[in-house]
Design a protein that fits this description.
22 strands, Rossmann fold, 34 helices, nine-stranded mixed beta sheet, alpha/beta, single chain, six-stranded parallel beta sheet, 3 domains, 48% helix, 808 residues
């Protein structure tokens, strides 16, 4: 290390390769405790992460000081998930030090890419909800909004997915085994969280909750930098800790397991994301999780407020609380409780103060996803909160016109607490996440409430951060775009519209196609590494990656694949367009139908991929353990993006935006943000099929008969018959019968109704892909025209129309 520059003073750390190399060596030696000659990739990864983190802190501290100095209103974003993925690549890119870091590691003979791959994905989320929260947090920093993200520091996340004989197997995720170098433990930031007990009348009047159970919430902070580190915000995650580590009396009596019982029960709160709620115990645990992080977060923000302000009635002038779906809806009674029980505010004033602070994002129109808790369970776990909810409900209903159906709009009804209604009534704004979804919110799940509060529902269409989902995950395309139009698009994705002028440039299209092919070759290598399977990168890469759910209709996709397979076998030497269908996604452990879909896909893949008559004409790939890092490999390689949810059921989607900005063409229904994507890319550059949301509702109302629909389609009927006959069940078991029975007799998600249109559109796509120059031109136009779907634009909309905060 002779000749290396001396360390810069705190707050002025150098960003050059030489200084970074010195920092990395110091971190490796004194924080990791390794000698360079014995360090493995993960050791170098931690050392590099810590060196980069120091430089983020150099920006983080001034950002925090500026926010306090200027008295800026803060946004507090409460979310059950923050699917942040790996942070090292993003952090280096945001600070503009990727290449200096690469050069710094090269001085030690260390492979930069191997080091990046050694970082585990943070297991803090599952699907679009969590990834949106992560994009939003990065964009909050990017546009200069002072903000905190609040969530749970899950020890194991959801689960690590593998397949056993085609069945999904859930294994424990151990992402924290080696530590998390990006976070700062805050042992001094601890809040008590109570459950159960009873509510009593205090001697001085008022109500006092005496919980029978108490745990502690301990904070862990991760700094989240914006572009070039101009502003840095905080992701604060809560870990559950026991109020008493060990029952020493029981231990001394020899009851060793019993002595640690309270600790185990407490730590369970932050152990697993979305514990199964198929049992009463699981329901209680999930409710406790939601209250745990919400209460800790609100206690934290109120503490921060009262440090500098005296009048809690002005809380909304300084605090904006965004509820990311219904999981943190208990924030409404919790904030009221804090204001009334701890700070002596009158109930009506507290209700109004809370409403001015809180806003709510709805992410689903599915009734089962709009959480409802049995009153008995809710009252047993949170008795004081149930009292407050009932008081809030009584006051709300007292002002409802007599012509209004109280059963439709009430927060409490049919023995259940309706968390979506609680969030709506307790907020000053409730927003949808696409234009169609917002319209359907007004007409369906919140129809009665919308009639009472016609200005409360607003739209804020989702967005994605271009820093991760183009600049970071697709460096080849990012370089090509920058060479063509400059680099302003990285901080302002709408500037990418200028790329449209190059769509008819043959040389640019050729370069665009070369980048796509290189990304497909990379994915092909990953498929071979994970599955020992060879796919042809020149084939059409057809990508369906998202949470496995019936409304997302992976079933429709695989049924079309079976029909395609059958036709190929009938005439294998016809001029078939080779296609690789790539699936990835997890099913909730208790979601039987979704797990059957996974089994069907894997069964079909096993037969199709080993049929020599079909060869490379059709391959079916299901990559296990879908996460952010895998998405970063799959998305840049996509030719076709499957966004085929039952119309009216997908709130927005963000995968559709990520795939489109990376040059994939979309096949989709007019659902969620697909509607707005079509408006921006043009009818010629997207493949729309199937029933509309209104048509789906009408078919259901008219008594939809799926059997008649299936029998009228020979391709679909033949595919189902082959599946039913065990043509793809290698073990001969009748495990798929529930899936097939539902399709023939119920088909709530309109798979049969949309099959013919979907299959016809897929045939049209085959023909379109054959004209590769024109397909590439369409891909360029997709990249160019979806710049509006930036999370920066979305955050500016929230800031202007909901939170009332300025942006940079």
């Amino acid at each position: 290390m002779d000749g290396m520059a001396a360390l810069e003073p705190v707050g002025q750390r150098g960003l050059d390769a030489t200084t970074l190399a010195q920092s990395i060596l110091e971190k490796l030696t004194y924080a990791v405790g390794k000698d360079p000659s014995h360090a493995v990739a993960r050791d170098w990864g931690v050392a590099l992460s810590l060196a980069v983190r120091d430089r983020i802190v150099d920006c983080w501290m001034p950002s925090t000081r500026r926010s306090y100095r200027d008295g800026r209103k803060r946004v507090y974003y409460l979310s059950m998930e923050f699917l942040i993925g790996r942070l090292l690549r993003d952090s280096m890119a945001n600070l503009g030090i990727t290449e200096p870091c690469r050069a710094a590691l090269a001085t030690f003979g260390v492979d930069f890419d191997e080091v990046l791959e050694s970082e585990p994905d943070a297991a803090l989320g599952n699907g679009g909800l969590g990834r949106l929260a992560a994009c939003f947090l990065e964009s909050l920093s990017g546009v200069g909004v002072a903000a905190y993200g609040y969530g749970i520091r899950y020890e194991h996340g959801l689960f690590r997915q593998s397949f056993r004989d085609g069945w999904q197997a859930e294994e424990v995720e151990d992402w924290l085994t080696m530590g998390h170098p990006w976070e700062f433990e805050r042992p001094e930031v601890i809040y008590p969280i109570g459950f159960g007990g009873a509510v009593e009348i205090a001697p001085e009047g008022g109500r006092v909750w005496r919980p029978s159970e108490q745990i502690l919430a301990k904070a862990y902070d991760t700094p989240i930098p914006g572009w070039r580190g101009a502003h840095v915000n905080t992701l604060r995650l809560w870990s559950a800790q026991p109020a008493q580590l060990l029952d020493l009396d029981r231990f001394n009596r020899g009851e060793f397991l019993g002595a640690t019982e309270r600790r185990v029960l407490a730590e369970t709160i932050s152990r697993i994301l979305y514990p199964s709620d198929s049992t009463p115990e699981g329901q209680e645990l999930r409710l406790k999780q939601e209250y745990f992080f919400t209460s800790a977060s609100l206690q934290d923000l109120v503490r921060r407020f009262v440090q500098d302000h005296d009048d809690l009635a002005s809380l909304s002038d300084h605090v904006a609380i965004q509820l990311n779906d219904t999981h943190p809806a208990v924030a409404v009674p919790e904030l009221i409780l804090l204001l009334v029980d701890r700070h002596g505010m009158a109930l009506d004033a507290a209700i109004e103060t809370a409403r001015r602070c809180i806003s709510y994002t709805n992410h689903t129109l599915l009734p089962e996803a709009l959480e409802c808790w049995p009153v008995g369970l809710f009252g047993r776990v949170l008795p004081r909160h149930l009292e407050i909810i009932e008081q809030l409900n009584d006051r709300f209903l007292a002002n409802v016109p007599i012509t209004t159906d109280r059963r439709e709009v009430g927060i409490v009804g049919d023995g259940r607490v309706r968390m979506g209604h609680l969030a709506f009534v307790g907020s000053h704004k409730a927003n949808g996440v696409s234009a169609l979804h917002t319209d359907l919110m007004k007409r369906t799940v919140f129809r009665g409430l919308h009639e009472l509060f016609p200005h409360r529902i607003v739209n804020q269409t989702n967005g994605i951060t271009p820093r991760r989902w183009l600049y970071g995950c697709n460096p080849g395309l990012a370089r090509l775009v920058t060479e063509a139009i400059g680099d302003g698009w990285v901080a302002d994705l709408e500037q990418i519209e200028a790329l449209a002028a190059h769509a008819d440039d043959a040389a640019f299209r050729a370069a665009f196609a070369d980048v796509k092919l290189a990304n497909k070759e990379r994915l092909a290598r990953e498929i071979r590494r994970r599955l020992d399977m060879v796919v042809d990168p020149s084939a059409l890469f057809d990508i369906h990656i998202k949470r496995i759910h019936e409304y997302k209709r992976q079933l429709l996709n695989i049924l079309e694949a079976v029909a395609r397979y059958r036709v190929i076998r009938e005439d294998p030497y016809a001029d078939w367009q080779p296609r690789v269908k790539v699936f990835a996604g997890k099913a909730a452990p208790s979601y039987v139908m979704a797990k059957l879909v996974i089994k069907l896909i894997n069964d079909v893949a096993q037969v199709v991929n080993n049929d020599p008559l079909v060869g490379d004409r059709l391959k079916i790939v299901f990559l296990p353990n879908y996460n952010v890092s895998l998405a970063e490999t799959i998305i840049p390689a996509a030719d076709l993006s499957e966004q085929i949810s039952t119309a009216g059921m997908e709130a927005s989607g963000t995968g559709n935006m990520k795939l489109a900005v990376n040059g994939a063409l979309t096949i989709g229904t007019l659902d969620g943000a697909n509607v707005e994507i079509r408006e921006r890319v043009g009818d010629d550059n997207i493949f729309i099929f199937g029933l509309t949301a209104d048509e789906v509702a009408a078919r259901r109302a008219d008594g939809y008969q799926p059997r008649a629909e299936i029998e009228a389609q020979s391709a679909l009927a033949g595919a189902l018959q082959q599946i039913a006959a065990g043509g793809f069940a290698l073990d001969g078991s009748p495990h798929l019968e529930p899936l097939l029975h539902d399709l023939w007799h119920r088909d709530y998600f309109m798979v049969a109704a949309d099959f013919a249109a979907y299959a016809a559109t897929q045939s049209r796509i085959d023909r379109a892909f054959a004209d590769h120059a024109d397909w590439t031109r369409r891909g360029v136009l997709n990249t160019a025209r979806v710049g509006w779907f930036s999370s920066d634009r979305a955050i500016r909309g929230y800031a202007r129309e909901i939170w009332g905060v300025p942006t940079a």
